[in-house]
């Protein structure tokens, strides 16, 4: 694909449109019912296959999601510890 200029730009356009539509759907699902964050991360993952700027955003989104997960787990652990100490 990369060796032929027309196929290269056609492929990049197809990846850009597909990833962009999924990313846009994820953004819409953040304010409507649906898995918004999953759509955003999936859209960025598709875009990251061809675009360096999307790779950087995907790395930041994964780091944010991991930190959010850890904070939620820590809050659950603290709550369980508090309940256990109250009994």
Radius of gyration, in angstroms, nearest whole number: 19 Å
Task: Give the biggest sheet.
Answer: none
- Count of individual beta strands: 0
Return the string of H and E elements: HHH
pLDDT < 50 runs, ≥5 residues: none
Mean pLDDT: 89
Subunit organisation of the chains: single chain
Measured as a percent range, the helix fraction is over 70%
If helices are DSSP runs of H or I spanning 4 or more residues, what is the number of helices?
3
Instruction: Give the distance, in angstroms, between the N- and C-terminal Cα atoms.
Output: 65 Å
What is the strand content? under 5%
The outline comes out as: elongated
Total domain units? 1
Class from secondary-structure proportions: mainly alpha
Give an account of the 3D structure:
- It is a single chain.
- It contains three helices and no strands.
- The protein has one domain (5-86).
- The model has no long low-confidence stretch (mean pLDDT 89).
- The chain has helices at residues 5-31, 36-48, 52-86.
- The chain has 87 residues and is an all-alpha fold.
Quick rundown:
The protein has 87 residues and is mainly alpha-helical. The chain has 3 helices and no strands. It has one domain (5-86).
Features:
87 residues; mainly alpha; 3 helices; 0% strand
Write the layout of secondary structure elements.
Blueprint: H1 5-31, H2 36-48, H3 52-86
Helix pairs in contact: 1-2, 2-3
């Amino acid at each position: 694909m990369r060796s032929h200029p027309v196929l290269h730009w056609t492929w990049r356009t197809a990846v850009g449109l597909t990833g962009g539509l999924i990313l846009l759907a994820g953004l819409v699902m953040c304010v409507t019912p649906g898995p918004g964050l999953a759509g955003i991360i999936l859209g960025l993952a598709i875009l990251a296959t061809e675009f360096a700027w999307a790779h950087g955003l995907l790395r930041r989104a994964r780091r944010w999601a991991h930190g959010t997960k850890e904070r939620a787990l820590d809050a659950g652990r603290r709550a369980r510890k508090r309940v256990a100490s109250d009994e």
